[in-house]
């Protein structure tokens, strides 16, 4: 069983030609005989475009099963909170699982979320929420509950899925978007050297993920791999309590910022792809 995983392609932000990207990725997946292509969120700033892309990609890769969850960017447009939580779309596996044929492996997907716990402001919820409402793009996402309530829902969903996996003697590959451990965050940049920059840095960290998810995954004794996105740049694998965390974000390259290690999207995508071979 050969599986490829990617995330954070940001095709619109990176101004990638969509038809060219579809053809390239389909051709690569077919040529390399992938059984599954998993995607961990942030393809477009519009769920309709994300859904359409994966539906077309699946049509072009008959021998590769496509499965994806979404990130905060995908949630910005054309997606209600209810739709995000209840999977009615082909290949969308939030709060769903896939059992790999002829094996004891199970893929569990959950978009994840954040609860400010990765920030020094973790106990100043109103302060962080006020900042988010003014400065952070997620404030436009349809969300009738608080970030802490949304993260609690994630924990409840994942706990249920892990209990099912344990009952069925499955080893789990977990796919999520947001960071499940604070150790996965990049080291603080040296440019964060003033109170104002420290304030901004801590506010951004509040939106990165939650240790609650990582603790739950590690305590389960069934999770072996966790593939996450959201954090751009290079993030080496991290293993904690027999769980290996892997990041495969393509990241963003434009006039304002360049997070790529390669000179074009296609080389960056193939370089950052994570590939695992399962017995």
TrEMBL record:
Source organism, top-level taxon: Bacteria
Matches recorded under Pfam families: Metallophos
Signal peptide stretch: none
Domain Calcineurin-like phosphoesterase residue range list: 1-232
Xref: NCBIfam families: acc_ester
Protein name: Metallophosphoesterase
